[in-house]
Amino acid sequence: MEDQFYFMKFVAHRKTFAQDMTNDERATMGQHVAFWTEQVREGTVLMFGPVIDPHESWGFGVLRVTSEAAALALIEKDPAKTIGVYELFPFRFSSDNCGRSRGNAGAVAEASPRFTRGARAVTVTGRAPKV
User: pTM here?
Assistant: First the structure.
């Protein structure tokens, strides 16, 4: 089965999350980073990390999987899913040869008519933290 690529966006439940996370949230984020780092080592994730955005706390990842279901299964395993919301968007690389070998994280992505025509963005929500 041919690899499919997805842009994954994780948005924390509050805009100030990066500045004021609790000790429990900080521990969860450590587990989150360890989980996605392992996926990079396995070649399922090409890159991930936080985005410096003055308006809200969010991060992204670029997934290489066999299906949307496989992408959703990874998100379901992420410890941080309980402290934020995931959005998942299909896309392809700008060159058919760019980023196809495992471990190449330098590729540039663009929207793909092949994957996006009739496709939908998927939002995966975790439970809001108890306050």
Answer: 0.72
Question: Residue 125 corresponds to which amino acid?
Answer: T
The CA distances from residue 93 to 18, 60, 62, 88, in Å, are 30, 16, 11, 16
* DSSP track, 60-119: EEEEEESSHHHHHHHHHH-GGGGGEEEEEEEEEESSTTTT-STT-----EE--HHHHTT-
CATH architecture of 4-125: 2-Layer Sandwich (3.30)
Q: What is the pLDDT of residues 30-89, one digit of tens each?
A: 999 999 999 999 999 999 999 988 888 899 999 999 999 999 999 999 999 999 999 999
- SS3 helix, strand, coil % of the chain, rounded to 5? 35, 30, 35
3-state class (DSSP) for residue 127? coil
Closest C-alpha among 73, 85, 74, 86 to residue 35: 74
The Cα–Cα gap between 23 and 104 comes to 34
Task: Say which DSSP state 129 is in.
Answer: P
Q: Note whether 47 and 64 are within 8 A (CB).
A: no
Helix (H/G/I), strand (E/B), else coil: 22: coil
